[in-house]
Amino acid sequence: MKVGLVHGRFQPFHKGHKFLVDKMLKECDLGVVLIGSAQKNDNNNPYTLKQRLCMIREIYKNEKKLFIGANIDLDSPHSEDSPWDVVLSSCVLSLTGHLPTDIYAGIDYSVQWRRINIEINKHRRYNDISGTDIKKLIRQGRFTEVEDLVPKEVYKYLRETNPNKD
Question: What is residue 50's three-state secondary structure?
Fold first, then answer.
């Protein structure tokens, strides 16, 4: 069984993330989205776990083979001895009953998978979309510029919940 994984902070969930999730769902028997930095809520992570869950669930509400979960951050996620692979695969196992077989990520993906045999599918940045740029536009009140960068469900959610609407 082919079990895919897309993990990230999704601050907010944008069209680049959607591209990866859609590709995973097309190619895998089961798919998992893990929302990282679940415990954080600050300027760099303005959306709570609950808000990010709402955004993603709204897009994929009818997708039966997609599981959505969360994970907290590790202290040095990119160090040589970081157990990221164990943490992420444990989350996937708890949601699906299977270990992940495939990761779908951006070209700069750097998590080391030493303990779990997995295929890493790296893809170029989708239309050069950046979550950092999207957050900046929202903070500056340039909300209409965000519309083409996020799925329509996310844009609607952001418009309804954001005080910086233009």
Answer: helix
CATH of the domain at 61: 3.40.50.620
The answer to the question of residue 120 being in a domain is yes
pTM: 0.92
Q: Which residue has the tokens 């009140």?
A: 141
Q: Is 82 a domain residue?
A: yes
In a domain, 137, yes or no: no
First vs last C-alpha separation in the chain = 47
The neighbouring-strand residues paired with 68 are 33
Could you identify the residue written with the tokens 């965000």?
A: 146
Residue-level pLDDT at 161 = 83
Under the banding of pLDDT at 50, 70 and 90, the label for residue 37 is confident
Question: What pLDDT digit, counting tens, does each position of 72-107 carry?
Answer: 877 665 666 778 889 999 999 999 999 999 999 999
Separation between Cα atoms, residue 142 and residue 94, nearest integer Å:
40
Contacts of 158 (CB under 8 A, 6+ apart): 12, 138, 143, 146, 150
